[in-house]
Amino acid sequence: MEKLELLAPAGNLEKLKVAALYGADAVYCGGFSFGLREGADNFSYQDLKDGAEFLHERGKQLYVTVNMIPHNEDLKGLPEYLHQLEEIGVDALIISDPGVLKIIRDEDIDLSLHLSTQANAVNYASVAFWHDLGMERIILARELSKDEIKEIRKKTDVSLEMFIHGAMCISYSGRCLLSNYFVNRDANRGQCAHSCRWKYHLVEEERPGEYYPVFEDKNGTHIMNSKDLCLIEHIPEVINTGVDSLKIEGRMKGMHYVSCVVSTYRKAIDSYYEDPENYEFKQKWLDDLRKVSHRGYTKGFFLHPPTEEDQNYESSAYKRTYDFMGVVRGFDSENNEALIEVRHKFFKGDVIEILKHDGEIKTETVDYIINEEGKEVADAPHPKEIIRVPVEGEYQKLEVVRREVRK
Fold first, then answer.
1. Under CATH, to which class is 322-404 assigned?
2. What percent of the chain has pLDDT over 90?
3. End-to-end CA distance of the chain, in Å?
4. Domain boundaries defined on the chain
5. Distance between CA atoms of residues 187 and 391, nearest Å
6. CB within 8 A of 62, min separation 6: which ones?
7. Is pTM beyond 0.85 here?
């Protein structure tokens, strides 16, 4: 049985490397223009080139988003950018707009094309239509059940990709006008203000200034605030839909999110392929996914249409039980010390977890901290500082360190 692809997000070059090292088969990212995540760090030309080389050396692939819905002025510079991506040797372009497709054809760009979920492919006829136009992969809309996906698979032979984890949009696969209307930031051009996460009240026309809560409690009003997608409990059903790639959302998420989510799905997928008949879901996988920032979890449309249970009416804030403490920058085998770049304040006596690239999670106690000046200190409060802490295990660069949130 050929193993399907695990596809991970990357908001910058370092996260791309982390995604690959923790088990992603491919990574998707965006350049500074023409994508739908303007708020992410995104990639310069050199970053894209370095990222492609890093992945290709490891037998992995790089897909670049060119999936905005452009207005006339947005097309300026697009042909030159497409040729740059071709020169770099990225493995595919993710697009949604027919005009962008026309420019790709006019410029004779020789790259594989993937249809973005922004194109809202929800039926086999639409999938076949785009395949006939040259799309080698269709990224299915999130609004599909497993039975609908199976039917699309049965009636088409194009590569299919589906989302398995991450934020859900209140609008149909991201086609949202709220952000544009309220703050003149076009979600379809990469500038989403996440207006669906705001609090809302009603105002009656004849009573301006009188605000009536739609639903109110101590946390406010959140009527369009979906929980995050999580299908870790349904890996056999997901694989048996016949899709070719499983996609994790999150180009604006942090390194802890990327490392933990990719590693967890990698373990679950590999466990299934090792012995499909005796596969068992492990509760620890879901427990680990709850350690990263999330808004509560939902199965989305996969099993049945969402209900009120799939919305978070209490708060748009993230839930987080663990802090991202830092990243390993080196290992001193002579003194059994890990060199850690600080991202969150360390204290002597902290019990930390280090997520190894092979999926193992090791627990260590910080018996002492040595700062960059070589002095032993009680805490390390400065972000980006390199500290030395004693460890029992052996660790590699770009392994992620976390700690349970301090009460």
1. mainly beta
2. 72
3. 47
4. 5-173+225-310, 322-404
5. 45
6. 16, 26, 27, 28, 29, 48, 51, 52, 55, 56, 90, 91
7. yes
